[in-house]
Structures are given as structure tokens and as C-alpha cells.
Amino acid sequence: MLRLPATMFCRLPRGYCTSKRAIASNRRISPSLIDIAPEVRETLRHTPQLVVALESTIITHGMPYPANLDTALEVEQIVRQQGAVPATIAIVGGRIKVGLGADQLRLLARTDSGAQTLKTSRRDMAYVMATGRNGGTTVAGTLLVADAVGIRIFATGGIGGVHREGERTMDVSADLIELGRCPVAVVSSGVKSILDIPRTLEYLETQGVCVTTYGSKDCEFPAFYTRSSGSKAAYNLTSPTEAAKMLHVNRELGLGSGILIGVPIPERYAMNATEMDAVIAEALVDAERKRIQGKEVTPFILSAVSKLTRGKSLDANMALIKNNARVAADIAVELAHIENGSAAKEKQTDKATLAATDGAGAPLVIGGSVIDICISVLEDDVKLSVLIKN
């Protein structure tokens, strides 16, 4: 008889199940901590596939004011125009918000609002909420909330990854681990080009995350500011329908892990790779000299790169997030069509038309049917005659 050492066993709580589905349910955030906007709540109740999550760190730490606010509002409008429903996720006053109003977006966008907004990943969430602060959710933080409320697709600019010299510093973004935990598809322009992209892709493979490109014939993985990173993804998706089918099957398999869809920046906004490598290298040296560490590194580098490129990188950043939002919304509409039938798609086409015109020129139909019931008594019999007036 084979004897195994006692150290190989551990006591599990009563009722504990090790299945992927059970683990996911154990991770659910208490609904009492989350405020969901009425539009988002209604869509999640009837057609959850149509909701597209949006992060808020790009507002609070990724762009200067007012470019951050303008971009956030435009991105939400783009999602609506494609027939989907945007849900920007953030923490406001210690409460998780899924879907923000214009006033809340403005509060997060303004750095002079008086309330410090913290960059919020999984590790920061309990502190930010317990102290009643505002938080811009990172990719990891947004994934955590999106999964908890049932959102299946998420658009962002670029995800975090393994930092350069990560083999020495062990600086690996929590975004990668959360992607391995949440069955949510992330549409981004790849990994931020200030990071070690080859090692990031290797780490994602270890986490069980399927990485694909979108609309790339040779599976060339994008590098945020540039269309090519020199690394390749395993697969390429050619259309929203193909992407939606993959999301559907991923759910049916119950894998419990996410999908990263790399969408190249539109060509007219793409930057020269050689120029960007030189700029990033200079920014990294500056960060090391000023001893910038931890979660402050990425915002510092992005700001430095914007200054060194005289604003070109900021224009590229704004263009790629808008394009990613459009792609994510198209995939969401196709996913609803696949899982709910053609009726859902036709309904969203009508909503997209209204969103594109902001309601202007939409027809207003007034009408009704009136039914009068007249009762005539003849001798001992009661006879009913029904007159219908249109």
C-alpha cells in the first residue's frame, strides 16, 4: 500500500467544492457593496451579453484633464452607437459603481476635485472602500467587479504585464492573474509597450488565458502605441461573429479563465516603433533615477512618454481606446444574437439608431384601441354585443 506524507493533505471547509464553477461563486462580491446604474441593471437582467465594461484608471491616472473626461464620454457614446450598453466601473465614496453618470465621471476626471482618487486593483479594494475613498479601477479591479455582476466583455486601452527586468524585480501586474481567474473577454491594443511583452505572453499562457489577435493575418500581437510587438499570438479572430462564438464556447466549457483579444491601433495613429523604443527607454531611466516604484510606475511612464512625444502618444492612446470600445461593442451585439436569437439583434439595432441621433428625429407614435361593451336585456336573456372602435 502506497503511503503519502501527511503534508500532502489539508483540511477543507465543510461543503467546499474544488470545481471551477464553485470557486467562482466563492469569489462573488456581496451585492450590498455594489450600486448598478438602472440602464445597466435592466440590460443585465434581460440581455447581459450586451453590457461592455470599461475601466476607470484610464480616467483617473491614464490621461490629463480634460482629455480624460472627453475620452470617457466619447467611449461610452461609441458603445451605445454600436447597439451595446457601456458600464464604466469605479469606486466612488467607498461604493462600487457599475455604470457612472456624467457628474461621477467628471468627479473622477478632475485632479483638483479635492478628493484623492486611488489607483485600485484587487489588493487595494478593501482599503479604498473601508475608508470611503474614490478609486479608479485597474484592469484587474474592473475584471473582478465585471465577473461578479455577470459582464462578459470588457474594453480597455492596454493591459498590464511583466515589467522589464521582471525576472529580477518580480514586478508582474495583477491584471494577468485576474485574467486567469475571470471568464471575461478583454479587448485591448495588446500589452502596454513599456512592458516586457514576450514574457507577458508566456505568463498569460501559464495562467490559461487564450490570447488572440483581431483582424491580423499573421497573428502579429500589437504593442499599444504600435501595431506590431515582434511577438505572435496563437490565434487570430477575423470578425465580431467569430469572436462572439469563441466567447460563447468558452462559457459553455466552464473554463473559468478569460480571453485577451489584441486589436492593433488604427494605422493612422500608430507610432514608429524605433522612435517609441527610444522614448520609452529614456522614460524608464528617468523613473529609476527618481525611484518611482510599484503601481506608480505605469502612470509616470505614460506621462513621461506623452511629454517626450509632444502629445502624439496621448492622441494614439485616445484613438486606440475608442477603436477597442467599438470592437468590443460589435462582439457584444453578436454574442447576444448567438445566445438570444435574432430578436435581440433587431432590438439593439433600433437602440443604436436612436443613440446615433441622440433621439433627434425619432418617430413618436400616439394611438390606441378602444373596446366598448354594450349590454342589452331582452326578456329573461342577457345578450352581449361588442363594438370595437379604432
TrEMBL record:
The UniProt entry, under SUPFAM superfamilies, shows: Indigoidine synthase A-like
Q: What GO terms are given for molecular function?
A: hydrolase activity, acting on glycosyl bonds; pseudouridylate synthase activity
Xref: InterPro entries: Indigdn_synthA-like, PsuG
Any one cellular-component term (Gene Ontology): cytoplasm
**Matching Gene3D superfamilies:** Indigoidine synthase domain (3.40.1790.10)
Entry's Pfam families?
Answer: Indigoidine_A (PF04227)
PANTHER family, A to Z: CARBOHYDRATE KINASE PFKB DOMAIN-CONTAINING PROTEIN, ZGC:136858
The record ties this protein, via HAMAP family, to: PsiMP_glycosidase
Q: What is this protein called?
A: Pseudouridine-5'-phosphate glycosidase
Q: Which organism is it from?
A: Anopheles stephensi (Indo-Pakistan malaria mosquito)
